[in-house]
Design a protein that fits this description.
Blueprint lengths: L1 H14 L4 E6 L15 E8 L1 H4 L3 H11 L1 H6 L1 E9 L1
Amino acid sequence: MNNYLREIIDKLNKEFKINDIKIVDNSYKHKSHKSFSPEKFHLHLKIKSTHLNSLPRIHAQKLIMNVLKEDLKTKIHALEISIEK
């Protein structure tokens, strides 16, 4: 799991100038959901980036989701994105 989170961080760092990034795995909160799968994660991405913060929130989130588009198809069931100042 930690290796996978590291992969996500590396992908995002390649694309954006990031000041700080944290990924919280909230998968355990969703075990009772009908569509829950232990192979897919529910993640909360907390990112500090001057560049992303300068963009409209929707645009910044779309850029992040574009970088993670393959992960969203295969490994991530839900992704919450917080772009912090």
